[in-house]
Design goal:
The protein has one helix and seven strands, in the order E-E-E-H-E-E-E-E. By secondary structure, the protein is mainly beta. The strands form two sheets. A four-stranded mixed sheet has the order 1-2-3-4, covered by helices on one side. Strand 2 (29-34) and strand 3 form a beta hairpin. The radius of gyration is 15 Å and the shape is globular. InterPro entries: DUF868_pln (IPR008586).
């Protein structure tokens, strides 16, 4: 919930290609949707993302947002970012799960084992 509105986060990292870099280079998407509209989309698979999510794009063309972080040896990374210069800070959390914990109930979503959980 953000300001009383439900927010959904979708991602597909099944075929992501890193090409020797720490940042994903192709074949992935991470999307944030609110009220059946995609409000943030990071990817190179726009058409696939909209089709799989079942939401329409926002009426206003989004601005490119990019933040690059290099993370070594951590299982969880948390960062705070502003999506608009007049907006408030938002917390983004990325948690790595190598599947070694049998107590983790989120290890299998939709029939596949995700490598990262983005909250």
């Amino acid at each position: 919930m953000v300001e009383g509105k439900a927010v959904d986060v979708f991602w597909d990292l099944n075929a992501v290609k890193f090409n020797g870099e720490t940042e994903p280079q192709s074949d992935y998407y991470v999307a944030v949707a609110c009220k059946d509209k995609v409000v943030l989309l990071l990817n190179d698979l726009k058409k696939d993302a909209y089709r799989k999510i079942g939401c329409r794009p926002a009426l206003i063309e989004p601005s490119l947002v990019s933040k690059k972080e290099h993370i070594f040896g951590k299982k969880k990374f948390i960062s705070r970012v502003k999506f608009h210069e007049k907006g408030r800070l938002h917390e983004i959390s990325i948690e790595f799960n190598n599947g070694s914990s049998s107590a983790n109930t989120n290890s299998c979503v939709g029939g596949f084992d995700p490598e990262m959980e983005i909250k």
